[in-house]
Amino acid sequence: MKAWRILIAIVAVLGPALQYGLMVYDETLASAAVKSVEFFSYFTILSNMLAAAALIAPLVAPSGRFATWAEQSGPRAAIATYLTITAVVYHTLLASQWSPQGLRFVSNAILHTVTPLAYLIDLALRGGRGEARWIAAAKAMAFPVLFGAWTLVHGALSGFYPYPFMNVARRGYPAVVLTMAEMSLAFAAIALVFIAFLRVRTKTSGEPAPISA
């Protein structure tokens, strides 16, 4: 099991690292700085980096506060939710709009398919520590809400929008805000599904269930 955890942690790190290298390759210092801000403005990148950190921390610093948090059922369900949304949105809305080749194909596959799938398998195999409370679904909403707010503010200042369905310049604020509200419902629904799964898993496995997020 530890070998599996090391493997998926490496894969989870590789995706964002490779994508960042491709984005800033052959850029000037100034343009690389702009590209760096844009890099961290993609939900795909942020969700994958969070998953990578959550997978690595228990391996390198198991007694640390972040590792302890990352292994709890609530945060595990939240990260699974983010990765699921990342994969579903990409494969249903975005994949048909471009055809990456070479290393871009590799990084794209890791970010949108391999890491999300690996994390969900890991969640099914290991579950999480403690019983996830239903309130964890509400807590899980903080990350996408902050991302949405950042996207609108950053977009208004720079004109950059990471996804076409969030492009205010083309769609207008009413349409974008409506899309964000609809996606919020999707986030909440998926989070509740993972929380329900972990609650059932904890009860059927007979594992102790300390209070968790």
Task: Tell me what you see in this structure.
The longest helix has 33 residues, at 173-205. The chain starts with a helix and ends in an 8-residue tail after the last helix. It is 77% helix and 0% strand. By secondary structure, the protein is mainly α. The protein has one domain. Mean pLDDT is 93; it is low at 208-213. It is globular.
Portion in helices: over 70%
Number of domains: 1
Q: Find the structural class using helix and strand composition.
A: mainly alpha
Largest sheet: none
| Count of DSSP H/I helices | 10
Arithmetic mean pLDDT: 93
Terminal CA distance: 25 Å
Highlighted features:
0% strand; globular; 10 helices; 213 residues; mainly alpha; disordered C terminus
What is this structure's SSE topology?
Blueprint: H1 2-24, H2 29-39, H3 43-60, H4 65-70, H5 73-94, H6 102-126, H7 135-140, H8 142-158, H9 168-171, H10 173-205
Helix pairs in contact: 1-3, 1-6, 3-5, 3-6, 5-6, 5-10
Quick take:
This protein has helices at 2-24, 29-39, 43-60, 65-70, 73-94, 102-126, 135-140, 142-158, 168-171, 173-205.
